[in-house]
């Protein structure tokens, strides 16, 4: 994982229940700040094009369907390696553009590895994704098998009942075990925020997972009724900022589920820049979990280059 080599991985700092229990979130203030970020006038022209290229670099290009096949995953990986048409790449003057990673189920790691051949990280969803309701022994073995198969990042799902019942010790112990099972592979903790009921629960779960050594915190599986939102993202990135101030460890952030337009990608980039700064605008600290987002970004960049929009069906689907 060369892109991570210059950064110190998050280490388990120990569960501080005193800190966790004192966390409060002002919902009205969070909503107002989120609305101000989401409604801000967007960048235009060449500045927008540059931001959209940055968004491409931070995409975890994803396929998590029950009908996935090796052929579909191979096409996804080829699109990840060449996310824009060559004429657009030439017009924009960008070299070596790729997505941040690909994200697949365990069974699709092998076909992904054959195409990528180490050129991009492979993220595998794990721990009984998306519900997470298998035995801990089964979930740990699943992680170990995915790492052995070639996954360099593991997207785990937490047990939501630990959050909903306030059992922070159980959540910490679970996350610590996942972190250990991942070994050298980086671990993203999926909080399934749409299931957690309150922003306060989101903040506390974020902190507990980071205290247990998660390298990223991620909003959603994409399978919940409500997935990534700006208010949830605001709470999570502020937890990341405070964790960094307390410990010195830089934890990444990944919104996932429902981020399907160039406009929404720009909103999340804005949140990262304003709340965490430019250091967090790189793929080792920011990812967007998405499948159809790349198509809309490519259409917007084609409009920038040619002055015309094309139909989405004219663009290769990942």
TrEMBL record:
Pathway: Carbohydrate degradation; 2-deoxy-D-ribose 1-phosphate degradation; D-glyceraldehyde 3-phosphate and acetaldehyde from 2-deoxy-alpha-D-ribose 1-phosphate: step 2/2
NCBIfam families attached to this UniProt entry: deoC (TIGR00126)
Molecular function terms, GO-annotated: deoxyribose-phosphate aldolase activity
SMART domains: DeoC
Catalytic activity: 2-deoxy-D-ribose 5-phosphate = D-glyceraldehyde 3-phosphate + acetaldehyde
Protein name: Deoxyribose-phosphate aldolase
PANTHER family, alphabetized: DEOXYRIBOSE-PHOSPHATE ALDOLASE
Entry keyword annotation includes Lyase: yes
Similarity comment text for this entry: Belongs to the DeoC/FbaB aldolase family. DeoC type 2 subfamily.
Keywords: Lyase, Schiff base
Alphabetical list of Pfam families matching this protein: DeoC
EC id: 4.1.2.4
